[in-house]
Amino acid sequence: MAESPIGVTPSPLTRPSITHVIFDMDGLLLDTEKFYTEVQEIILARYNKVFDWSLKAKMMGKKAIEAARVFVQETGLDELGLSAEDFLVEREAMLQSLFPTSELMPGASRLIQHLHANGIPICIATGSHTRHFELKTQRHRDLFALMHHVVRGDDPEVRQGKPSPDVFLVAAKRFEGGLVDPNKVLVFEDAPSGVLAAKNAGMSVVMVPDPRLDISFHQTADLVLKSLLEFIPSDWGLPPYEIDTTPS
To answer: Left, alpha or beta for 44 (phi > 0: left; psi -120 to 50: alpha)?
Structure first.
């Protein structure tokens, strides 16, 4: 484990040479986490409760039903008669209109296009189900079409959600040629559960967390950045950008 202050790049001398890259999606490539926060704040307000980032951190990256169970149990809404399933139904109605407006996170398009243009196999491993994936990506289909494959939360081979390594192990074995050596895979994540999942899969992880996330969650990642714009591919043995500098 290599702990690094946010936005600071540690020495690349001991890093493995990366051949394949796996991206999370929500909060990492697409600015969708704000939608979940907005809707959950609305639901909690009806019960005179407040949604905070300690709860958000426990929910991020998980499958929908797993996150819903955390939500109703941690807030006590299950004791007030709101089940995880009922919560999902209510939340779904509000999210349907928000997801199609999803925007790319800074640096996402640049990095994806760069890796694809240089022949680096890339894919997505997300907890989002197919229905939500289609809504979230509908404005960015050309970019997401550059992925070798996408593993979603409702994939039958993904038996457990993050922090289980299932989604990343399934993603790694679907690259051309079969299962890739986990030591040669770099994962990009924003969620604590996703970082743990990648490490449990034996992979290296670059974390790009929301600035409101408690810094204690940074420690498991190999590198922590403020934005994908700060990532330097050549530090990981990947083809450099034409001008390989970090933005000012």
So the answer is: alpha
